[in-house]
Amino acid sequence: MGRLQDKVAIVTGGSGGIGKATARRFLEEGAKVTIVDRSRESLEQTAAELAGLGDLLTVEADVTQEDQTKNYVDKTVEAFGTVDVLFNNAGIESKIQPLVEVTVEDFERVQSVNVTGVFLGLKHVLPILTAKRSGSVINMSSNGGLDGTLYLGPYITSKHAVSGMTKTAALEVAAYNVRVNSVHPCPVNTRMMREIESGFSPEDSVAAEKDFASRIPLGRYAEPDDVANVVVFLASDESTFLTGAQYRIDGGMGATP
Q1: Does the annotation count 151 as an active-site position?
Q2: Has residue 65 been placed in a domain?
Q3: What's residue 192's pLDDT?
Q4: What is the model's pLDDT at position 185?
Q5: Contact indicator for 73, 51 with CB cutoff of 8 Å
Q6: In the beta sheet, which residues pair with residue 178?
């Protein structure tokens, strides 16, 4: 029996590095999984990679749109009967630039995915969990959702918002035995970090990567599985007394002065 045996989980941003790794771990632990992404092509590729691991549903959706959010939740219930776990993982980075150079359009674009997307997931999944008086939501924030970072203002703002939303949601549903927590990774070895590295150092992104890694006490980026392992724990019944908390997955960065 797996740690998530027969639970039903939704993973937004399910075709990205962290989303795919988490969906794989969920399946390996016995869950039935819905992965959500904007790209049908990416969903099909991810489904092919995860084939044979268990019950997997793919739903194409833009998490910023309420009707599409409701649809991925409805499709999951239709296929698997309920929802037990939501990993609110979909997110985008912002351009590398000072706040005073950020356009309103770029600022709102990042908030739409990283904040509104999380809000809509909570809005449409929490009623299912509270009705059954059990379940877990894990919201993707960042170590930048606890600290500041130069030139990533819209992204950092959005991830702080996720931290606050997580705490509020946790308080609102605690009486129903539903947990809501957030995870806060340092740089993770994914496409998003390749974009950020190139943004900080267009002529030598490898140097930027080395610089970022040097600031992590454990001396390396997190891998997607490092994040997935914590998310599996928070999704499982091993974490039934944990809610409203922020879990750093940062190789010790939070301990540095």
Answers
A1: no
A2: yes
A3: 87
A4: 97
A5: no
A6: 135
